[in-house]
Structure formats: C-alpha cells, structure tokens
Specification:
Structural class: alpha/beta
Radius of gyration: 66 Å
Distance between the termini: 26 Å
Shape: elongated
Number of strands: 13
Strand content: 5-15%
Largest sheet: 7 strands, mixed
Oligomer: single chain
Number of helices: 25
C-alpha cells in the first residue's frame, strides 16, 4: 500500500552518527591506512623503475621550390589531412620499421626485450617433449617484436599534424634512443620511397618521350603532305589563301560600286544645274576643274573692267560692247567646260560599271574555290589537332622528365616530416612514482574504510532518524483540544455498536506537566501488570507515591514495554472517556518520537483522538474504510505534531460501519505488516465487544486511566479475564490543559 511508505520518505540520514561511528573506529581506520601506506611504499621501491621518453614529428610537405620548373613551379601542395596523418601513425608502427630499429640498436642483446634468449628449465622441458616450440628458432628481430610493441606508443596529437613517438624502457638512454631511431628510420624510408618513385618515373618517361617524338614527327609530316596535295597555302594566320583572296575581292568590289554611284550622281546633278541655268560653282567636280577655274578668273576680270569703265563710258561705247562680248564668250566656255565635266563623270561611271562586272565574275570564281578549299581544310584541321595533341603531350612529358631528373639526388627529395622535438634521456622514472602511489593508496584506504563504516551504520539503521515533522501540511500545533460536551459524547456513544459502550464518567482533571514528552522515555521498570490488582495487591499499588506512580504508568514506560515485547498491535480501553484517549495519543506520539512507525485507529464515539491529531475535520477514516466508501490510502493521515499516522473516525454512518466490524482484525493485521506498532483506541468499550474484534487474542490490551480507581479497575479486569485476557497493561497519563479546537474542513 503506497500510503504506508510515507514514513520511509520522512526518514532523515543522521550525518552526525556517521562521524561518530567513524570517530569511534578511528584507531582501526588509521592503522589500516598506515599499513596500506607502508606496504605501498615498500612495494613501489621493490619495483624496477621504468623510464619513458618521446619525440615529436610534424607532418608537412617539404618539396624544395627550386626543383620544380615550368607552369607547375608555382603550384602549392595541399597540407596533409587527418586521414593522411593517421596513416603515417600506422606506418610508424609497421613491423618492417620496428625490425630495422631493433636491428640497428641490437635490442636482441638485451634481456629486457629478449627474455627467451635465456630459457628456463620449464621451457626446456616443454621444448624437449614437443609441448612448446623452441623460441630460439626464430630470428632475434622476431623475438623482440612483442616486447617492442608493448613499450612503443605512437599517437597523433589532438587537432594537429604532430605525431608523438613514446617509448618506455628500464634504460633511460635506450628510452630516448628508440624514438629518435624510429623518427630517423621513418624519414629515411619516406625519402627513399620518393627517390624510388622519381627513378621509376625517369625510366618510364624516357621511353615515352622517345615514342612521342616519333609520333609528333609523323603527325606534322602528314599535315604538310595534305596541305601540299590540297593546295592549301598557309598565310601564317588562321585564314587560307582562298579566304584571303575572297576578302580582298569583296573589298575592291565595294569600293568600285561606291565610285560608280558617286560619279553617276555627280553627273546627273551637274546636267540638271546646267539645264536649269543655275550656278555650278558649288558642285565639287566643277570646283576641282582647272579650265573652269581659269575661265572663272577671266570672267571676274572682265566684269571688273566693265564696272570701272561704266563710270566714264556709256553702254554704247565700243569698248563697253567689246567687254560685254568677251564676258558672254567666257560664260559660254564655262558652260561648255561644265558639260565636258559631266561627260567625264559619265565615262567614269561607265568604267566603274565595267569594273564591277569583272569583280563580280572574279568573286564568283573565288567563292567556288573557297568552298572546295573548306572541304579540304576539314581534313587538314583534323591532322593539325592530332599533331598539336602529340606535341603538347611531348612537352608535358619533357617538363616532368626534367623535374624528376632533378630529384634523383639523395638530398633532393626530403621526407614529408620534420622532427620538432628529439627524445632526451629522462632523469626520473615514469613508474613507479613512490610518493604519489603511497599517498594515493593511503588516501584510498582511508576513504574506503570510512565508506565501509558509514555503510555499516546505514544498513544497521543506526544512522537513520525520523524527519523533524510531516512536510505534507504546515499548521500551528495545538497541544490539546477541548472535548465535546457531554451530550455530544453521549450521542456518539449511542451510535456505536452493542459491543462498544461508555464504562465510566470522565474523572476530575488533575494538574498536568507542560508537555506529554516530559515523561521519561527510558525506565528500568516495566508497566505494572493488571493481574497484580486482581490478586489483591490493589492497596499496595495505590499506596505508591505520586512520582513513582507517574513513572510506572506513564506513556514512556508503556512504550518501553511494548517495544521490548515486540508488540505489533495493541487495543487501548479508556474507561474515563476522552482523557484516557488523550493518553493513547500521547503513547502513539512517544513511540513515533523513538523513530518507530506507528499508526492509531480511532474507534471512539467522540472521535477525540481524531480531533487531537488531525488538522482538519471531516477526513475519511475507519468508518469509510469499513463501509467501502474510501480507499485504504485515503484513510491514513499524518499527525500534525509527530511522525505518527492516524486513521480518524471518518464520515460514514457508524451503525452501518460497525456491521463490518469483523473486518477490523484484518485491517489491523495488514497495518501491522507495514508499521512497527498499531494502536486501536476503542474508548470506553466493553470486554465482550473487544473480544469479538480481536479474534486471535495475540494483541496487548491497554487500560488508559488518568485517575485509576482500584475498585473500578478490578471490575474491568475481571470482565476481561472472563473473555480470555489475563494480562492487561495499565497506563495513567494525566490530561493537560486544553487548547483551541482544530480548524473545520
């Protein structure tokens, strides 16, 4: 049932108990720590020291810039990527490289790397009977590989192109020599691989270049023969002879056509001006004619003479007539010259027309030759392309041949790796670290010992303590609650079943201590057995002093008795009513204060325990559980003043609930499996009714009487003896002053 685990969540870990337990066992812990520290110190000194050294290589292209020529001289090689660097790491761990290093350093002569060189008697015995292969049959380099691999570590430095070579050995000088030797051998192998590659490239290129030269010569010869056969003259440009000739004819034809058109237009314009009698001085052909210009000059002179003589001579004067006759003759000559110029232009146009006709005929002939030459050029261009391709390939091979030839020297092809840190002999061993190992061993032993002690305390339960209070609700805690009036108590009592009835009137209140927990929790005296009163010892018990009586019958004493007996369930009878029920509540809180899980079931008619322990009214409780109107988990509520739980009276009809009172024993047994103690407060119940509810008779019966009356208690115990209960536990807890009531729901 989930609600029954509430106190497990409310249990706190007592850290102080952890420290107390560790302090109590400090001697054992310190002794164990010191012993382990001494053993670690001695053991570290007994181990043979191992030294470790490392070298660093940077992987980068190391191509000399002066060795390249041609268009590839400015090409920058890409930097090695992560996969390339990882591949170099694996190459440095290759078997061939390790064999060469082991051979150069003569590692087979060292017992550290070749323990099989001095086999033991057991090994000789196994070899003798064929149970083991003779290790001396293997070459020395093969025998040292296993130890070499175990001591070698090659790794790539994170986020870089740096490779670290780490080696461990008992000899510090050897620990430094091996990484340096691996780096040197690796670089030598890389450089040798480049030289081999260049040598192979040179040998292959020599053969290919010789073949390409012959192919280029044959291709160029085919081009020349085809050009000669097809009559394709080369002009040194992309144009052929026919194309050049056609272009020239086209240019000349355009020029002739322009001259013809210009001559025809000028002649027509000149004729029209002469016919209309207009001046022809503005016409370009007239202005360029020398004869016309001389006539124009003479005309100007005659006109000037006429103008000079007109001032002194009359028009009929013979000289004036002579001059006018000369002027008319000059103008007639100018017109005649203009007509000659027009005729000359017409002749020029006619010549241009004839030239145009000739050029057209010539261009048509050249066009036919050009079309025929174009067909021949298709084959020529194909041969030229083949020759150009062979020539370009030859030039490329020649450039590569020169480049590869320049790298045949030993120092011309360095490895693509540079040593940035050489290994040096270490001054201190890498293992064992005596002081750190001693400190760590001692500290680990101390911590583990403390943890073991704490786990023992935790599993034993000594380090667990109940929580300070319930975290489900935060209310103001009231020490006591006023009881209901007598009429309400009587009405509630009448609603109970026949087996539960009031048995006594509430006794007068006495002075009470400030807190119920002020009573001593531990006492050496057990609660008095009720049989003593039945056997006639009532007077002796009642004659005890008040202080002794309080100790013997207090809630703390009863709690001690119940816990010592291992009681899982107890039924409390309160003959005095609510004051006795208050004592049962005090008992439940006392048991809860000891870190035990306790639950109280309110079977009273007044529901006084429910009012004392719950913060709200109308909560579901035992009556709802008996009638089936509420689930088990909904009926368990936390005490507002302790870690105890309470199953209140509930809200269901009491008479209907008590019809299922037989189920109460099953409920109590179920709760006893989850709680350390189950208290059932029955109020002033009768012995017969309680006997029906406790069928197995294994439960303790508690008489909670604040002011025990000898006669009344004797009658009650006699009634319980009649139904089979011989041993009753008496508890006397005096009620405190009542506080305010709880809140209404």
């Amino acid at each position: 049932m989930p609600s029954l685990d509430r106190d497990q969540q409310d249990v706190d870990i007592d850290l102080a108990q952890f420290f107390r337990a560790v302090w109590q066992r400090k001697g054992t812990i310190l002794a164990t720590t010191a012993l382990v520290g001494v053993l670690a110190f001695v053991g570290a000194h007994a181990i043979s020291p191992t030294y470790k050294s490392d070298a660093m290589l940077l992987i980068e292209p190391r191509e000399p810039s002066f060795s390249a020529s041609g268009p590839n001289a400015s090409t920058v090689e890409p930097m090695p990527d992560e996969l390339n660097v990882a591949s170099q790491v694996q190459l440095m761990q290759s078997v061939d490289l390790m064999k060469q290093v082991a051979r150069d350093l003569k590692l087979h002569e060292r017992a550290e790397f070749d323990p099989e060189s001095s086999p033991s008697a057991l090994t000789d015995f196994l070899v003798l009977f064929g149970l083991k292969k003779n290790p001396l049959e293997l070459p020395p380099e093969e025998r040292v590989l296993k130890a070499f691999k175990e001591k070698l570590s090659v790794y790539q430095v994170e986020k870089s192109r740096v490779i670290g070579i780490e080696f461990s050995s008992k000899d510090p000088q050897l620990a430094a020599d091996v990484p340096n030797a691996i780096a040197d051998v690796y670089r030598s192998l890389q450089s040798g691989a480049k030289l081999d590659s260049n040598s192979e490239a040179v040998r292959w290129l020599e053969t290919e270049i010789a073949n390409l030269r012959e192919k280029v010569r044959e291709a160029e010869q085919k081009v020349a023969e085809y050009r000669s056969q097809a009559g394709l003259m080369s002009l040194g440009t992309d144009q052929s002879f026919s194309s050049k000739q056609l272009s020239d004819i086209s240019t000349e034809l355009a020029r002739v056509r322009g001259e013809r058109a210009n001559a025809e237009a000028t002649a027509e314009n000149l004729k029209a001006a002469i016919k209309a009698g207009k001046s022809t001085d503005t016409i370009d052909a007239i202005s360029r004619s020398e004869s016309v210009q001389r006539l124009r000059t003479a005309e100007s002179q005659v006109q000037a003479q006429i103008s000079d003589l007109s001032t002194t001579l009359l028009d009929g004067h013979p000289q004036m007539k002579s001059l006018r006759a000369q002027l008319a003759g000059l103008r007639e000559q100018i017109r005649a010259e203009a007509l000659k110029v027009a005729a000359g232009l017409e002749n020029q146009a006619s010549v241009a027309r004839e030239r145009e006709t000739q050029l057209i005929a010539q261009m048509n002939s050249v066009k036919a030759d050009t079309a025929r030459a174009g067909e021949d050029e298709v084959g020529l261009k194909s041969l030229e392309r083949e020759a150009a391709a062979q020539r370009q390939l030859l030039e490329t091979y020649l450039a590569r041949y020169r480049e590869a030839s320049s790298r045949l020297d030993k120092g011309s092809s360095p490895a693509d790796a540079r040593v940035i840190s050489r290994a040096v002999p270490p001054q201190e061993p890498s293992f064992p670290k005596v002081l750190p190992m001693t400190i760590v061993s001692a500290l680990a032993t101390f911590i583990i010992s403390c943890v073991i002690v704490m786990l023992m305390e935790l599993f034993s339960g000594r380090a667990l303590r109940p929580a300070a209070g319930s975290s489900a609700r935060e209310y103001e805690r009231d020490e006591e609650i006023l009881p209901e009036d007598d009429e309400m108590q009587a009405a509630a009592a009448e609603d109970l079943a026949d087996d539960v009835a009031p048995a006594a009137v509430l006794a007068p209140a006495r002075d009470k201590p400030a807190s119920l927990l002020d009573l001593p929790e531990e006492t050496d005296e057990r609660p008095i057995d009720a049989d003593a009163l039945v056997d006639g010892e009532e007077d002796e018990v009642m004659d005890l002093e008040a202080e002794d009586e309080q100790d013997e019958f207090s809630a703390a004493s009863v709690a001690n008795f119940l816990l010592e007996q291992g009681t899982r369930a107890a039924f409390a009878i309160s003959p005095s009513g609510d004051d006795g029920s208050a004592g049962t509540v005090a008992l439940a809180r006392d048991v809860a204060g000891r870190g035990r899980r306790v639950v109280l079931i309110d079977m009273t008619g007044s529901a006084w325990p429910s009012q004392m322990m719950t913060a709200w009214a109308d909560l579901p409780g035992i009556t709802d559980l008996l009638t089936g109107e509420a689930a088990f988990a909904d009926c368990i509520h936390p005490d507002r003043s302790s870690t105890a739980d309470i199953i209140p009276q509930g809200n269901a009809d009491i008479r209907q609930a008590m019809r299922g009172a037989d189920r109460l024993s099953m409920i109590v047994d179920a709760l006893a499996d989850a709680y350390d103690l189950v208290l059932v407060e029955c109020g002033p119940a009768q012995a017969e009714g309680l006997a029906r509810l406790t069928r197995n008779g294994k439960h303790e019966i508690i008489l909670s009487a604040p002011d025990p009356d000898t006669g009344e208690l004797a009658d009650i115990m006699k009634a319980f003896q009649d139904v089979g209960y011989d041993d009753l536990v008496l508890m006397s807890v005096r009620p405190k002053a009542h506080g305010p009531r709880r809140h209404a729901a």
